[in-house]
Every structure is written in C-alpha cells, then in structure tokens.
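We now fix the convention by which a protein and its fold are recorded. Think of the row as the fold of the chain written in a discrete alphabet. Here is one such record, which you should read through line by line.
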Amino acid sequence: MCNAKFRSLIIAFSIFFLTFGLVGCGSDDTTKNTPPSPPPANVTDPQNPDPVEPAPTETVEVTMYFPTSDATGLVPTDRTVNVAKKSSEEVIAEMFKEFANPPSGLVAPLPKETKLLDVKIKDGVATINLSNSFRENFEGGATGEQMVLYSIVNSLTTLKDVDSVEFLLEGELKAAILGGLDTSTPVTANESLILK
C-alpha cells in the first residue's frame, strides 16, 4: 500500500517538474522578442547611399610666368591645375597657389603671406582682391615691382577671357598698389619682360 502511494507521488512530482521545467526553459528564450540589431556603422545601406560625394575635378593646362633670381625677366612655365569646374575664377585661384612653387632657378613672385581674397572676371577684366600682406611684405625696388605685378598680369592674361588685371588691396583700388607702377586702371601684359 505504501509502495503504491509512494509510486503515485513520484509520478505526480515527475509530471509536475517536467511540465513546469519545460515551461520555465521556454521562458528563458530571449531571442523571440529582441529587436534586430542595427548594421555596423561602417556598412553603407544600399537603399540609402550617402548623398554627399566629392566633386569631380578637371585638369586645366596653364602658362605661368616666374621671375629670374636676378630679376632680369620672366620665364614661361607650363603647369597643370585641378579645378572642380572650369571657371576662370577657379583657375586663377589655383594659379595663385602655384605661384608659391617656382621652378628650380626661378623665384616666387608674391610677397610672403599674400592671400587672394577674391577674384571676379567681367568684360575681360580680372579683378583680384589681395590681402594687406601683398603690400606690407613687398621688399621694394622698381625692378622687383615689375617682376611681381607682371608675373601676375602676364600669367592671368593667358586665359582666354582675361585681357587685363585690376588690383584691389583688401577691397580698395590703389593708384599704385606697390608704390610705383600705376594700378589705378586695369593693367595689361608686358611681353617685353618675357625671356625667350
């Protein structure tokens, strides 16, 4: 009699533990209600590509004039500049960067720390607005002034839509931007300074 009761209890406890044990195991499954994790940050979603792309660049061949070290004349030099669009204003901005890198044996024409603040082209006149450093850091001399101004003018007038150059200093027109040569009106190229 005791054995029968004992067996009944064991069977009852076994059914109880099996039933609630399986339910309990199922409740530990946390993957059913977990939201999907986002993709890693470095993976681009093909449905939403990044709308910001770098602008394509084009190369433009230009001729620039650099002074000789003894200031006896200007030497033509071919350069290639990269621009986002082929506007002459952008080409001129790149040419001003190139002035800082003269070929071997020639000198950089711009006074130290000169910055091109702005450039506009209208009716064949390129108006260039330069920082005060252009005048403040100019080392002087009539020949040096010729080399600086005509290095710029002769270079810029090689562009098809530039016939002359107007010089501004911090937005103001100066009668003689470097103290000697007349810059009250747009300056045209001086081919007599070019060394053949």
In short: Helices lie at 2-27, 88-98, 133-136, 142-156. The longest helix spans residues 2-27. Residues 11 and 162 are 104 Å apart (CA to CA).
